Amino acid sequence: MCAAKGAPPPTITWALDDEPIPRDSGHRTNQYTMSDGTTVSHMNVTSPQIKDGGVYRCTARNSVGSAEYQARINVRGPPSIRAMKNITAVAGRDTFINCRVIGYPYYSIKWYKDSLLLPDNHRQVVFENGTLKLMDVQKGMDEGEYLCSVLIQPQLSISQSVHVTVKVPPLIQPFEFPPASIGQLLYIPCVVSSGDMPIHITWRKDGHVILSGSGVTIESKEFMSSLQISSVSLKHNGNYTCIASNDAATVSRERQLIVRVPPRFVVQPNNQDGIYGKAGVLNCSVDGYPPPKVMWKHAKGSGNPQQYHPIPLTGRIQILPNSSLLIRHVLEEDIGYYLCQASNGVGTDISKSMFLTVKIPAMITSHPNTTIAIKGQTKELNCTARGERPIIIRWEKGDTVIDPDRNMRYAITTKDNGDEVISTLKLKPADRGDSVFFSCHAINSYGEDRGLIQLTVQEPPDPPELEIREVKARSMNLRWTQRFDGNSIITGFDIEYKNKSDSWDFKQSTRNISPTINQANIVDLHPASVYSIRMYSFNKIGRSEPSKELTISTEEAAPDGPPMDVTLQPMTSQSIQVTWKAPKKELQNGVIRGYQIGYRENSPGSNGQYSIVEMKATGDSEVYTLDNLKKFAQYGVVVQAFNRAGTGPSSSEINATTLEDVPSQPPENVRAISITSDVAVISWSEPPRSTLNGVLKGYRVIFWSLYMDGEWGEMQNITTTRERVELRGMEKFTNYSVQVLAYTQAGDGVRSSVLYIQTKEDIPGPPAGIKAVPSSASSVVVSWLPPAKPNGIIRKYTIFCSSPGSGQPAPSEYETSPDQLFYRIAHLNRGQQYMLWVAAVTSAGRGNISEKVTIEPAGKAPAKIISFGGTVTTPWMKDVRLPCNSVGEPVPAIKWTKDSEDSAIPVTVDGHRLIQGNGTLVLRSVKAEDSGYYTCTATNTWGFDTIIINLLVQVPPDQPRLTVSKTSASSITLAWIPGDNGGSSIRGFVLQYSVDNSEEWKDVFISSSERSFKLESLKCGTWYKVKLAAKNSVGAGRISEIIEAKTHGREPSFSKDQHLFTHINSTHARLNLQGWSSGGCPITAIVLEYRPKGNWVWQSLRTNSSSEVFLTELREATWYELRMKACNSAGCGNETTQFATLDYDGSTIPPIKSAQGEGDDVKKLFTIACPVILATLGVALLFIIRKKRKEKRLKRLRDAKSLAEMLISKNNRSFDTPVKGPPQGPRLHIDIPRVQLLIEDKEGIKQLGDDKATIPVTDTEFSQAVNPQSFCTGVSLHHPALIQNTGPLIDMSDIRPGTNPVSRKSVKSAHSTRNRYSSQWTLTKCQASTPARTLTSDWRTVGSQHGITVTESDSYSASLSQDTDKGRNSMVSTESASSTYEELARAYEHAKLEEQLQHAKFEITECFISDSSSDQMTTGTTDNADSMTSMSTPSEPGICRFTASPPKPQDSERGKSVAVPIPHRASKSDYCNLPLYVKSEAFFRKPDTHEPCPVVPPREASIRNLARAYHAQARHMTLEPGSKPLGLPPPASATTTLPQRTLPMPSTTSTAAAPTASTAPAPPTTAEPPATAAAEARVPTHSKVGGSRDSLLEMSTSGVGRSQKQGAGAYSKSYTLV
Prior knowledge:
Blueprint: E1 2-5, E2 11-16, E3 19-20, E4 27-33, E5 38-45, E6 54-61, E7 66-73, E8 77-81, E9 87-90, E10 95-97, E11 101-104, E12 108-113, E13 116-117, E14 124-126, E15 132-134, H1 139-142, E16 144-153, E17 156-167, E18 171-172, E19 180-181, E20 186-194, E21 200-205, E22 208-209, E23 216-220, E24 224-229, E25 238-245, E26 250-257, E27 259-267, E28 272-275, E29 280-282, E30 285-289, E31 293-300, E32 309-310, E33 317-319, E34 325-327, E35 336-343, E36 350-359, E37 363-366, E38 370-374, E39 379-386, E40 392-397, E41 400-401, E42 410-417, E43 420-427, E44 437-444, E45 447-458, E46 465-471, E47 476-481, E48 490-499, E49 508-513, E50 519-522, E51 530-539, E52 550-553, E53 564-572, E54 575-581, E55 594-601, E56 611-616, E57 621-626, E58 634-642, E59 647-650, E60 654-657, E61 668-674, E62 680-685, E63 698-706, E64 716-720, E65 724-727, E66 735-744, E67 747-748, E68 755-758, E69 767-776, E70 779-787, E71 796-802, E72 812-816, E73 822-825, E74 834-842, E75 845-849, E76 853-855, E77 861-865, E78 870-875, E79 880-882, ...
């Protein structure tokens, strides 16, 4: 490594043995410059070899010079000598010869010359490294061959020779230039006396080559050169150099040529006038060589000069460089003759004389410099002048000439006194304005002079200017400035102050303040008081007037007195109310801003530290409630008042105890022991004392039974004061759940964990039922039911048979296994009566016998059912077996039916239902709609028998209605009303809550008996989301709506009334942070950031204190920006301000002018650019969102059209094609955002009655080939949740943050309390010949009690699902099918987007108000509405619908351009295959009388007929089968039925808007209902035309106007608002 330093930084090179190092893979160098300017170079030698050894030299060079360093590196190996080049040496100089040895080791290096070992004289030196030095080289002695010999082994040497040639440099003989004068001849030779030839000689003058034509001739020979000048002149002056050079060196010799010139005048002296006191120059200038020396002489007097004397050169008289004489101040004695004489030793001297005359200007010779006058007295000023006459004297005051004629206060008099003139200025009287400089000016022809007189007019001083520097609570700091001291030294000051309301007679004074002091502190003031202050100053003339009176208010101080009359009142088990009054007025020391309440627990083991809460003052009496205290604990409370200045003393501590509360922990060590089959003993120990929260009053034991079917028995409880209780009268061999709690005066505490116990076995009760039937002439079959109370595990059954007339004393006994519930007794006598009974047996013994039945064998065996009817309860999604075992000869035939209101429907066998060979009906994965009465009928030739089984399917409970009842800073109290229990008792509730912006939910399990719960230990001022679900034996039910609530509290805020800065000096600032209000939540941190104005870097300070903070190390006299951020759990509050430090002398600094520097320009640009960029991004984002929504809406329309085509074109067969086997129609599942519908084709379903809502549609929609003689076609709508017992059919609540759900109106079912999980409603239409089918994907139910109308609308996407998809039929937990006004607006936009409704008329057709006391319908209409803002909406939660009517008649031709799902323009024969949404009468009204399509009434006719019926017969009207739709040919007939009443919801059938129609063929009729014209121009309001499928399809129909009354299709789209 080699390091060098220089400026500029050097470049480093490397050499090895005086040869440059080659750059290859083995030798690499790198160079860099360090931070201190040092340049470092590294030489890296990779895999060193012998040749890499030697002397390494690094050389550092820059533009200034170079430096080098060398060192030898030995590489081990056989030594050798590098080849050496011959050396040329210069005689007289030193020469070094290096022996470049490589390899190591070696013994020695020696030099030889002419076989002589060197050194052999004093000029030769051999160094240890083998270098030979020759000093003062001589040609004859040192030139020759030199041998380097290296001893590498004791007897082995190697050598290398080098030849040294010595060159001799030239030697110039000395020469000189003789003195020369102008015009002389000059010859100078330059001779080289020795040196190697050839020698070259040249001349230079002043460093430059001598040019031809300069008057100089140069002649050169072999070793000599001469310089010749024919005529010497001044230009030949200079330094001449002779230079000789040969191969050895270049030498030179320099000499100077000087040419001499006699002196002469350039400027001659002339007579001059000088002005007294001014500077004068006597001109005289000469030249010559050498430069002449000039001497000035003076002869006094004005006559002929007698004798000249040399002039002494002083500071007043000097000779200038050009030889002129300078007289700085001309005096009268300077008059006379002057002689200028010059000489330089060449030729004779020269001289010239001149006369100087001195003139006297006007001069002030006498005047006072300063003088004093007393204000109001007369004063005279005198001034004396002399000089050349005439002299004029003028007086000035400052810069103004005094004119006595204009200003009568002044008078001027002048008089001669010999050669002087005296002028007097009189002032009568003197005034303050005369305290200036007066000047008297004397003027004549040769000049003017001025005398300054400073007049000081003395008077009493002006009052000082008083300012307040700092005001504290009990002192203030004054500062004053004495503006005018009366031109007399101030001798002292007086300060006077008083209460503002007092007179100055009651003043207080501070007198004789030193005049050297300009500030003072006044102490012992009262806080928050107003004072008046004034001041006087004194000088030797007198006292000033009083200063301007200042009014100041002292700052507030911390109160000196505590709050009064502090009282405590326990309010609850965790709160105490504190009341008090403000401190005494005279001790408040300001305005009381608030109070700090300190409280601590005084119970044993508490830490004794006060917790502090703060509240703002509201008046003279205050009340505060301390929350979240420990229950039944004693607390000590103190109260302190505070104002802006701080906190006062605290009140005396008083104590109070919180009220009792329920115990917070259950009893411990709860044990349960079963003693007998109906007795158990429960024992426990007392809860920890610290958790009793009051005085223990006793214990309560809660227990209930758990039955085998999962149901719970009635809860019972026993109260006791002991820690043991005996439970008697328990059910035998029954599981019980037991809990124990402790209670105080406040109520029941926390229950213990559930403890399970089972009573012991006992003998069973009698079988619950018994049957006996004859099975042949010699046998009977007896069947029975298990005991209602088995009281244990049934081990077997014993059947007893006795014949009263047979004479047998004991009955016969037969035994069966516990699984067999019937027995055939054979070998009986025909015609003889037998008595039969049954008893069950457990491990405890034989139980009670059943009833005795009498039977006799018979020859004929009519069909009898030995199974029993009754009620069967099962959880949903389970397989259920309904037994129907029968006997009889011949074997009876079994038939199952299910009751549906007033009719029975045969049970069909499918994948869901199976009838086994023994008559048992198996229902797989039962659902709520499977509930009902099932009838089993057994029939043979001799008779029949029936049993009825009531199947009850239990489902998960309904969602509870959750509300917020109370909130505090750390808790939220919730209340709820449970929904329907689903047929199984509720086991408990699961409450989930999370912070509003989080999805991390926490679970809380709540007892089934609770109806409220308090969430505690929550964050202050935070939003929380809460939801609740109930659980029963089936599972967890639907989750309630998520509600949001906020705990009390808000982010901190800073009070503008609070002074932030309490003290500021030049380097520190003290901040009072008590202005931060916590907002009800404790402040966790306060962050302060400050910086000098104009600086970018913020300094940060973090504190948890809310009192005082110091900012240190500030710059003096600097404006600062300060921003503060205080945070608590509710958020952060921000505050910004500015402040300025004081100057070094304690003075304030002015505000900063808003100079716009570079930083301000950047800020301003940033401030302007940010909103513009954000606004641009917002507009772009809005455009993208609107575009995405538009694309999504168009996609929904396309999907809906595809769905329509699918429904219309599926399985399009002719009507006369017989149908073989049960139809397997495809199932179509439509997903919409909040509802799931399942539509499937069915046949063979019975008509259910005349009171079901039916909406007719055409065969074109249904497209299902059926038997032309008799068929029923239905559409089943599967929906997961339609109606509930405790809530509306559709949830109309709009939960907003922090609000309770809107109250809901109940829709009661007429038959069942658990039909809300019915998931299928079937709409059917039976027809004999002309198939007018019913199909709707829009359904509607009207509540029977409260008039709530519910609809579903808007299908968005469709997907096919297989028949095997059982999940579609099962209940799923979904959100309620409610809409919001926002959704209505979206639907409105959907309608507007569709092409054919751009000119449609939108109107609200009906509104149903959800009011239990009224079933009124409110209707509002808005024509040509463009937005939802113009629409009338109900004032209460309910449903509104708006309808989009078709375009005007002039737009009807637009329908011809509507896209159809076939690739060509439809011809007349193609009209039948058009999709529904492009069919209209515009396509059918052709001149051709031949009907191109099958006789199928179009949907338009049905809808129009429906509308006529509705408007003609009021709200609920039925069109009889005989009514003729308008515009249909006579052979066609259609049956249209409208709901006649509100729908009941039977529990034994699917809850649905089931359609109804006549089962018999309806003859054609021409009867037409009245009032059709009025109905023609309107859209049906009660029957919703559009639906989850049609609502988006029908708006794409041809534009046929409403005015086309003959066959015009009212393709209206309706939406429903909930």
